[in-house]
Amino acid sequence: MSTLAFAVVLAFVLDKLFAEPKRFHPLVGFGNYVSRIEVWLNQGENRKMKGVLAVIIAILPWLVVSIILTVMVSGSDFLTLIVSSIILYLAVGWQSLLQHAQQIVTPLKEGNLEQARTYVSWIVSRDTDNLDETQVAKAATESVLENGADAIFAAVFWFFLLGIPGVVLYRCSNTLDAMWGYKNERFLSFGWAAARLDDVLNYIPARLTALSYALLGNTKLAFDCWQRQGHIGKSPNAGPVMASGAGALNVSLGGAASYHNRIEQKPVLGPDEDDFTRASADSIVQACDLVNKTLVMWIVVIMVMSWGISVACS
């Protein structure tokens, strides 16, 4: 069994025990660092090229450090295990995602819509002040499914493929996309490179996540929704994940949403109108369960693959 496979298990044990660090999280420091880069470069002419330069300046130093760190611990399986598991633990957001989801579920079930709106506003970018119960549940369910792919499974994929440098590259890229990937006047050109890099790095993990959701949920319906709806969203990677997840849960997602007081018509995802289940607090719980089942399946697959590779190489 490879050290990296054990590191994946240990990373999620750490996440289960400690969740997301409340203070001194490296990603907070990285966010402050890239904010200064954006202020420096996002001005004047040629903003697309400046955005490319900004991505390089933002990611390259940490990628180099991760490669050096990998070389430094490579002589010891124990050090590799400890350092790798800590890096992956800091890169994933499993318990944080589940905790945020539960904060929304509890007031929804208690009929406290105002509190549910407040908590859902912490994890989505849409306007939440006027959402009804179904819309709150829909937004939260979508967030759990999509962030399962982004905050958990893509990080695991790149860690298993390239080790510490892989997960550092992915997490930095994904953070840049979250900060610069907006299609507004400020970031449309400057954030182009960050958004495209994130699209490339998420392409395979997103489809593996969509496949996993389908296999562990309503399989026939998930594959049908993925085939019919996975390509119609704005994001090349969120579409398959969300469509497959909606089908797996037999719930209707997407539709009209307000962003900065402007209504945006998002594709409706899930089963046909006559057959779907309306989003509710139970849908959020079911989405969390689907993410948990997917995580277990991925860990089992990684351990089996690692065992097979070690046997083949021995």
From TrEMBL:
<dbReference type="GO" id="GO:0048472">
    <property type="term" value="F:threonine-phosphate decarboxylase activity"/>
</dbReference>
<comment type="pathway">
    <text>Cofactor biosynthesis; adenosylcobalamin biosynthesis.</text>
</comment>
<keyword id="KW-0169">Cobalamin biosynthesis</keyword>
<feature type="transmembrane region" description="Helical">
    <location>
        <begin position="51"/>
        <end position="71"/>
    </location>
</feature>
<dbReference type="GO" id="GO:0005886">
    <property type="term" value="C:plasma membrane"/>
</dbReference>
<dbReference type="InterPro" id="IPR004485">
    <property type="entry name" value="Cobalamin_biosynth_CobD/CbiB"/>
</dbReference>
<protein>
    <recommendedName>
        <fullName>Cobalamin biosynthesis protein CobD</fullName>
    </recommendedName>
</protein>
<comment type="similarity">
    <text>Belongs to the CobD/CbiB family.</text>
</comment>
<feature type="transmembrane region" description="Helical">
    <location>
        <begin position="151"/>
        <end position="170"/>
    </location>
</feature>
<dbReference type="Pfam" id="PF03186">
    <property type="entry name" value="CobD_Cbib"/>
</dbReference>
<dbReference type="GO" id="GO:0015420">
    <property type="term" value="F:ABC-type vitamin B12 transporter activity"/>
</dbReference>
<feature type="transmembrane region" description="Helical">
    <location>
        <begin position="295"/>
        <end position="312"/>
    </location>
</feature>
<keyword id="KW-1003">Cell membrane</keyword>
<keyword id="KW-0812">Transmembrane</keyword>
<keyword id="KW-0472">Membrane</keyword>
<comment type="function">
    <text>Converts cobyric acid to cobinamide by the addition of aminopropanol on the F carboxylic group.</text>
</comment>
<keyword id="KW-1133">Transmembrane helix</keyword>
<dbReference type="GO" id="GO:0009236">
    <property type="term" value="P:cobalamin biosynthetic process"/>
</dbReference>
